[in-house]
Amino acid sequence: MNIDLSLLTALRRAGSEAVSGAELAQNLGITRAAIWARVEALRALGYEITASPHGGYRLIRAPDRLHADDLLSRLGPTRVVGRTLQVFQKTTSTNDVIERMARDGVPEGAVVFAESQTRGRGRLGRGWSSPPGQGLWFSVLLRPELRPLEATQLTVAAATASARAIRDFTGLPVGVKWPNDLLLRNHKVAGILTELSAEPDRIRYLVLGIGVNVNQGASDFPADLRPRAISLRQALSASAPGGERRRRAAVAGGERPAAARPLDRSALAVLLLRELDRDYARILSGRFEAVAEEWAAFCTTLGRAVTIAIGPRLVRGRAESLDRDGALLVRTEHGLLERISGGDVRMDT
Amino acid sequence: MNIDLSLLTALRRAGSEAVSGAELAQNLGITRAAIWARVEALRALGYEITASPHGGYRLIRAPDRLHADDLLSRLGPTRVVGRTLQVFQKTTSTNDVIERMARDGVPEGAVVFAESQTRGRGRLGRGWSSPPGQGLWFSVLLRPELRPLEATQLTVAAATASARAIRDFTGLPVGVKWPNDLLLRNHKVAGILTELSAEPDRIRYLVLGIGVNVNQGASDFPADLRPRAISLRQALSASAPGGERRRRAAVAGGERPAAARPLDRSALAVLLLRELDRDYARILSGRFEAVAEEWAAFCTTLGRAVTIAIGPRLVRGRAESLDRDGALLVRTEHGLLERISGGDVRMDT
Predict the structure, then answer these.
(1) pLDDT, position B254
(2) Bridging pattern class, strands B187-199 and A328-332
(3) Does ipTM exceed 0.95?
(4) Three-state SS for A104?
(5) Cα–Cα dist B255/B257, whole Å
């Protein structure tokens, strides 16, 4: 365990209590002067840490920036997800970084966050807007012993875990649109991109890329996304008592609606990793059905009339259920049950 | 078209006729002195090219080494496979090279050969012995609009195309063992490794890696492979009139069996690429069934009692047919038809 990680873990564990420099120095096996130097370094990163000659150190507030050691200190032990964790200030796409790591033989569970992505990816070769410091853009390396056909199980697990984390974090009723979108107030708040490297009969590695819009205001989204995208902060602001009324009044008056205060991205990140770890364990132990049941409770697609574009082909029908590999079963107009493993879903009713 | 490619194409087209330096210079748009310099360079690579003051240049023999321009000059136009072609003297694995090219956005059809591979790969994470200059170790980049589930179609197409090429090249009765081995005299003469990068519902790119044992003698194979592997040259030597008898006599006398002369690897390479191009076109136009029918005629697995190891699980039964995605349908002891998309097949009868 490195020193920042140990130090932050000790300070967090103490909560509102102070921890003496002597105690920290002894537990970490370094001098009190070294403790002081690390505290100074953390302060430079924006950590608010008070120090009193007799009381000791206290962590008052962490900055709104992702810090690998801090995330690990808050995450605590997990089975797989978060075995290692890195934070990049900027990268092309966290999926790219994880892919490189996968090819270098890094074990599963590695997690990479980026404060911003220059080429964030969505499904089907589309882009994903990832402005600096306003969301959570991260990827997880998994090496499940599954066939490529079963990869959709992991998308479903990631959607379920993310929905649970976002619901628990915000208290808002989040919905899942099959296969990979999370919705709040019918707008896209998060997306999941599953990419895999495989032989025809076995997955070599799989990368779960997750993007969550956390603190963006309307003007932070590219113009073409504004009608369809939302951040957690926007959704919370609109849901606050009087929020919707305030928002409308503000818009009518030409003002920007009062925004809720920025959300703690690190806290949400930790929650997301923990829930992912839990659902990955369920998949590995063959309990996909339990995950799928929970997924179905979040799902806004099932039971609806849908039109699904699969390349040039359109399938129309009623979304009935998931099969055991996570594919969507659609009862078409002709009464046939069609198995859909991907495509663009539009809900018609 | 570059100069070596144009020059070799012109010399090959002329066959046993000589082509004058003046004619070559005019057609290639360079001086006669420059033609002379390129001829010298090709001679340095081992090309036997005669020149007479009045008759002109004639290609007598090409060296036993792969040369990208020469391969392209012999290949001629194709639909997809061989749009670009590179030859490495040594690389880790041609699949690695193609994968890097794929991630850099290189279009499909790119082909990479290596005279030797330091980390040649077989299926399921196994190795593939690729000694310098004795076989064909190459990979092809494809970007089919297919789902990962359908990737096995490409393995079947590659096996069918390779079997046809080897049969036409050697006249020997080559067999295909599902899903990816080519057999001569019940020994492995070639293998196919299909690797893909995908989202759960679409292939982003697919790499066909093909290895053919061409000119190895028994001592060129690692000891553990000797009982199971064979080269085309060995197989031809044993099949020559009296070959088997000669071989036995030689072994009994403690001598090495008389080897057939080395085969022209470039000629076989061109044949393989042409046949691959043909079967890839059939897959893209939805004619997998035609490919599968031809595959079935080569197949030594169908109709046999088999045991298939899929991870820790064993499936026993009779291999009945392929389904429309290229998976093997096995009638188990309990009368059920099981769909097998991968695994280790052992033929029991």
Answers:
(1) 46
(2) unpaired
(3) no
(4) coil
(5) 6
Among chain A residues, CA nearest to B193 = A199
Determine the 3-state secondary structure of A178 from DSSP.
coil
CB contact under 8 A, A199 and B123: yes
CB contact under 8 A, B147 and A194: no
CA–CA min distance A296, chain B (Å) = 19
CB contact under 8 A, A196 and B195: no
Query: A281-335, pLDDT tens digit by residue?
Result: 999 999 999 999 999 999 998 999 999 988 788 999 999 988 887 789 999 988 8
Ordered domains of chain B (ranges, CATH): 3-61 (1.10.10.10), 68-296 (3.30.930.10), 301-347 (2.30.30.100)
Residue from A97, A192, A199 whose CB has the most chain B CBs within 10 Å, to mutate: A199
CB B119 within 8 A of CB B127: yes
pTM of the model: 0.80
Q: Which two tokens stand for residue B204?
A: 């982003």
Q: Pairing between strand A110-117 and A84-91? A: parallel
Chain B residues 298-317 with CB within 8 Å of chain A: 311
pLDDT of residue A251: 46
User: Is B198 in CB contact (< 8 Å) with chain A?
Assistant: yes
| Percentage above 70 pLDDT, chain B | 93
Calculate how close chain A gets to B222, using CA atoms only, in Å.
25
Amino acid, res. B202: R
**CA pair distance B284, A312, nearest whole angstrom:** 15
Residue B30's contacts (CB-CB under 8 Å, 6 or more residues apart) are: B3
Instruction: List chain B residues with CB under 8 Å of A124.
Output: 199, 202
Dist. CA A198–CA B339, nearest whole Å: 19
Alpha helices in chain A (DSSP H): 3-14, 21-28, 32-44, 68-75, 94-103, 151-170, 232-239, 243-252, 265-284, 288-298
Task: Inform me whether the C-beta atom of residue B104 falls under 8 Å from chain A C-beta atoms.
Answer: no
B200–A196 CB contact, under 8 Å: yes
**What tokens were used for B254?**
């403690």
- Whether B198 sits inside 8 A of A201 (CB atoms) is no
Long-range residue pairs from B18-22, CB within 8 A, at least 24 positions apart, any chain:
B18/B50, B18/B52, B18/B55, B18/B56, B18/B57, B18/B58, B19/B56, B19/B57, B19/B58, B20/B55, B20/B56, B20/B57, B21/B51, B21/B56, B21/B57
B144 and chain A: CB distance < 8 Å anywhere?
no
Q: Where are the alpha helices (DSSP H) in B184-242?
A: 232-239
**Tell me: the pLDDT tens digits for A115-155?**
999 988 877 677 888 888 899 999 999 999 998 988 989 99
CA dihedral B217, B95, B106, A95 (to 10 degrees): -170
User: Within a 13 Å sphere around the CA of B105, how many CA atoms are in the beta-carbon half?
Assistant: 1
Q: Is B152 on the interface with A (CB under 8 A)?
A: yes
At residue B214, what are phi and psi to the nearest 5 degrees?
-105, -60
Closest C-alpha to A145, from A136, A137, A154: A154
Per-residue pLDDT tens digits for A149-165? 889 899 999 999 999 99
Residue A235: predicted pLDDT: 94
Q: What is the pLDDT of residue A241?
A: 67
Contact yes or no for B200 and A148 at CB 8 A = yes
Per CB-CB distance under 8 Å, the chain A contacts of B202 are 124, 342
CB atoms near residue B293 (< 10 Å) = 12
Please give the average per-residue pLDDT across B80-91, as a whole number: 95
